[in-house]
């Protein structure tokens, strides 16, 4: 039998939180948000609530958090969100050395009727970086017009996430692959290999290969190369960066290897491609 729940706030000196409420962002009332925050946590952190009247969302940016609920215990990691229903007790603690999160307390109103009402729900492979950045802006921004723009971003992302089809007809594999290659696109300079891609996507290497062929008509590494060539093409067109710099930026230490790959993908070497595009514009 698990221990009884109680209202607890044990937040140590190594935890840093930026609270968003009606005093610094009155616009949150439009979304029926009672309180929200961006938190960088380490050391002591335990928060417990007994029958809170609002829904609570926790999204893990990095690290892990552990939740105790009447329906059992759950751990969320980077890229996962947990939705805790209103009027259900819970307790949350850090489950890693450090844990970076965003969290929101949403009023139990018709706007959020699609949230789970009976038991906690974990959503995997979700990208709420847009919500995170908008929340940081909301916390810092003094201008009401800019705060309104941030609220619009937060609301759009949350409604897209929460009002998704409850049968999850959206292909979960497609969602997971989108999340994987969005992460790759953010680190094209990193020396990705199939093992690292498989581990990040939580698939075996053969299964990831089959899925990439199905959705992209490319192998996992071919998809990485495709993203690198897209970025290289954009940089050649929109910057005056040296080709050697662009090569390193998209993950090629050897300029010759980069040029050969670019020609195979685009049909022209990088220098010739750039010169042709400049000539066409003039």
From TrEMBL:
Family annotation (InterPro entries): Homeodomain-like_sf (IPR009057), HTH-like (IPR037923), HTH_AraC (IPR018060), HTH_AraC-typ_CS (IPR018062)
Location of the HTH araC/xylS-type domain: 178-276
Record's keyword annotation contains Nucleotide-binding: no
Any one Pfam family match given in the protein's UniProt record, by short name: HTH_18
One Gene Ontology MF term: DNA-binding transcription factor activity
Superkingdom field: Bacteria
Keywords: DNA-binding, Transcription, Transcription regulation
Name of this protein: Helix-turn-helix domain-containing protein
Record organism: Alteromonas hispanica
């Amino acid at each position: 039998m698990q221990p009884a729940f109680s209202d607890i706030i044990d937040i140590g000196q190594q935890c840093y939180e930026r609270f968003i409420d009606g005093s610094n962002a009155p616009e949150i009332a439009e979304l029926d948000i009672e309180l929200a925050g961006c938190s960088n946590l380490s050391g002591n952190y335990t928060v417990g609530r007994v029958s809170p009247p609002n829904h609570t969302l926790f999204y893990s940016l990095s690290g892990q958090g552990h939740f105790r609920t009447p329906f059992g215990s759950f751990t969320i990691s980077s890229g996962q969100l947990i939705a805790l229903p209103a009027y259900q007790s819970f307790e949350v603690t850090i489950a890693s050395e450090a844990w970076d999160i965003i969290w929101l307390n949403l009023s139990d109103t018709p706007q959020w009727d699609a949230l789970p009402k009976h038991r906690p729900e974990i959503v995997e492979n979700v990208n709420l970086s847009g919500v995170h950045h908008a929340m940081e802006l909301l916390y810092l921004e003094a201008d009401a017009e800019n705060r309104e723009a941030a609220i619009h971003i937060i609301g759009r992302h949350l409604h897209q996430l929460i009002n998704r089809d409850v049968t999850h007809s959206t292909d979960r594999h497609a969602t997971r692959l989108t999340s994987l290659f969005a992460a790759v696109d953010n680190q094209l300079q990193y020396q990705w290999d199939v093992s690292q891609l498989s581990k990040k996507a939580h698939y075996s290497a053969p299964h990831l290969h089959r899925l990439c062929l199905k959705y992209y008509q490319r192998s996992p590494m071919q998809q990485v190369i495709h993203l690198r060539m897209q970025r290289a093409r954009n940089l050649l067109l929109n910057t005056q960066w040296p080709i050697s710099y662009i090569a390193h930026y998209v993950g090629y230490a050897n300029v010759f290897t980069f040029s050969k790959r670019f020609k195979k993908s685009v049909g022209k070497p990088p220098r010739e491609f750039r010169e042709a595009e400049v000539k066409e514009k003039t």
